[in-house]
Structures are given as C-alpha cells and as structure tokens.
Design a protein that fits this description.
Layout lengths: L4 E4 L2 E5 L10 E4 L2 H9 L6 H18 L5 H16 L6 H16 L4 H33 L7 E5 L14 H10 L3 E7 L6 H13 L3 E4 L4 H6 L5 E4 L3 E3 L4 E4 L2 H10 L4 E4 L5 E2 L16 H4 E2 L2 E2 L12 E4 L6 E4 L2 E3 L14
Parallel strand pairs: 4-5, 4-7, 5-6, 7-10, 8-11, 10-15
Antiparallel strand pairs: 1-2, 2-3, 8-9, 9-14, 12-13, 15-16
Helix pairs in contact: 1-2, 2-3, 2-4, 2-5, 3-4, 4-5, 5-6
C-alpha cells in the first residue's frame, strides 16, 4: 500500500510527489510553515491528502505556540489556520480539515497541553478515517460499474489514487476494487497536462501493484472512445457543489463532454467531505490559477518564444448533467440527490 502522509517519530512524513516517478523520496515536515509550503508546491497534492496534511499542519502549528494562556493560544492557532487556508483555494477538504481541527481546539476543556494532545488525536483520526472512506468508495464504485463486459476498460484523468488520499484512492480506489474482484481488463490514464499527474503518478501507482495501465495524451480520449476502447470514465474531485457540479483537474470537463457524446458513463468518486453544500452550483467554486511556468517549460526546456501570454487554470467544473453518478463512502448518488449523501443509499 502507498501512504503519502504518515505521522512518525513526532513529525509528518510526506512522499515527495514532485520527484516521482524517477525518484522515491520522503520529506520530513516539522513546522506548519513547511507544511504550507509542501501543500502549495504540490509535494503533497490531491484534495483528501491535502486535508490530512493540513490537519497535521494545524497540530504542528499548535505545537509551536509557546503560551499556557488559552485565549492567546486560540488566537495564534487561528493564524496557523489562515496560513494553511491560503495554500490551495479550490480543494474543499483543506478547509474542512482545518475547521474540524479548530472545532477540536475550541471544544476541548482543560489546559493548552490538553488541547494540543487532542489536536494530534484529531489529525490522526482524520488520517485513519480517510483511508477507510477510500476503501468504501472503491467498493461502492465497483457495485455500479457497467455489468458488461465482464472485464472493463476504464479511463481516468489526473491522479485520484493513493497518492491523492490517505491511501487506496477515490477514482483509483474504484479501479483497485475492480482489479481485486477480477473486473478490470485495463486502465487508460490521461497524461493530464500541464503537470502530468496521470503520466507521472497514476501510472506509477498502477505499476507498483501490477495493474495493467496504458498512458494516452489528453487529446486522445475521444479517439479511444470512438474506437470502443473505453467502457466507463472514473475521475476524482476537489470540490463538488450542492447541485452536483464537480471541480476537478483541468481537462475533466472536456472528458465528460466526449464521454456523453459516446454514451459512456462518467463517474466522479469523492468523499462526502468534498461536497460543499454552501455552494449552490459550480459557478461559485474558486478556480486556482497556477504559475505559467507549468505550461511553457518542461524540465529545463522552454517550449515557447518570448512575448507569449499564458493562462493556467488548475481546475475546471463539470456540470452535473454530464455526471452519471457521484460515488461517496455512503454509496453512489445521482448528482441531484447529493443531499442524501450523509445516509447509506446507492443509485
């Protein structure tokens, strides 16, 4: 199993995802500022994994606060929360985890030392719960995949695997469950421009576990569907609005459109914590824009001439009407039924 975020020896260990697949390296995080930098630079990435990392970041920040006075401690902890919130604006799990950690701090009676201890326990609980959640998502997803053919060829975009969560994955959790039960023939993985998470991370995960995987460029998906090579699409999400509109890595929207055109089911796999019920629709989801160097440079090679302008949104929003079902730890739901997602129900 792949675990991208681990609490060990009184610090957080992160798999450095910027070095994969060529180098497997682990980064030790001892301070909240270092955790914020790790999230922003995508050493750790993927909405659920960011949430777990931020929870530990809150504890690390709390550990750095040197006061025994409760109110002063809480005020300084709010500043740690502000630091971590500013790292990635789209992934709602980040904000959910920070809010849960703050709730723990405010509701803990007793000394500052007791608050710190409870914060660590809450971060560890978030970590453990996410792993269980992903395994449940995988099994619920398996249950609603097409019944024919017996062995399916699935397509995914970006990396919604173990590296993007506490382990097992959301979209790749569905893939793993299908592989475990003998229902997977092959996974097709979009390379996912511009950061190539599909090429670098999704394929790496599959190779580690012997899952058959074929890499394609993002603009090959429609051709593969027309050739009858794809039975279903499964992707993750960084934030889902109450109406079922889902924000995921840039390129997901166009993938959903071509899936609809070819009558191929399109599934979004994400924990309930990714659903932002305060947003009525996807137009309210903030879209992160990243450094244009991701577009114009690969390694040390510059691809464009001087004078070119750039636009680099990291996410797009797939409208609910293009989504067959949203797979959560409580079951798979039609996008219009997300209000039922806190209860056990399967489409």
């Amino acid at each position: 199993m792949i675990y991208p975020v681990i609490w060990q020896n009184n610090c957080v260990l992160l798999i450095d995802q910027t070095r994969l697949p060529n180098e497997y390296a682990v980064v030790e995080i001892h301070r909240s500022e270092d955790m914020a930098r790790a999230i922003q630079t995508m050493i750790v990435r993927g909405a659920p994994a960011i949430g777990v990392a931020a929870a530990y970041g809150m504890y690390l920040g709390a550990r750095e606060i040197e006061t025994s006075e409760r109110q002063e401690f809480l005020q300084k902890l709010e500043k740690v929360a502000q630091l971590l919130r500013a790292t990635r604006p789209t992934a709602v799990n980040l904000f959910w985890a920070i809010s849960r950690m703050l709730k723990t701090a405010y509701e803990t009676l007793g000394t500052v030392a007791q608050i710190k201890e409870n914060l660590l326990q809450t971060a560890q609980a978030i970590n453990a719960e996410d792993l269980q959640t992903c395994q449940a998502i995988g099994d619920h997803g398996l249950a609603i995949l097409p019944k024919t053919p017996t062995k399916l060829t699935l397509l995914t975009h970006c990396n919604a695997g173990a590296l993007a969560t506490a382990g097992y994955g959301t979209a790749l959790g569905v893939v793993r469950s299908a592989w475990r039960e003998g229902r997977l023939e092959r996974l097709f993985a979009d390379e996912t421009r511009p950061r190539l998470q599909g090429a670098k991370l999704t394929t790496w995960e599959c190779v580690q576990e012997g899952i058959p995987v074929t890499l394609i460029t993002d603009n090959m998906a429609a051709h593969c569907m027309k050739q009858g090579l794809i039975d279903a699409v499964v992707v993750g999400a960084d934030r889902i609005a109450a109406n079922g509109d889902a924000a995921n890595k840039i390129g997901t929207y166009s993938l959903a459109i071509v899936a609809k055109a070819h009558n191929i089911p399109f599934f979004v796999a994400a924990p309930v914590s990714t659903i932002d019920f305060e947003l009525t629709d996807g137009s309210q989801i903030p879209i992160e824009e990243r450094n244009p160097v991701e577009i114009y440079q690969v390694g040390d090679t510059t691809l464009t001439p001087p004078g070119v302008e750039f636009y680099n949104p990291a996410f797009d929003v797939t409208p609910a009407e293009l989504i067959t079902a949203i797979i959560t730890e409580n079951g798979a739901f039609a996008p219009c039924d997300l209000t039922k997602s806190s209860k056990q129900a399967v489409v």
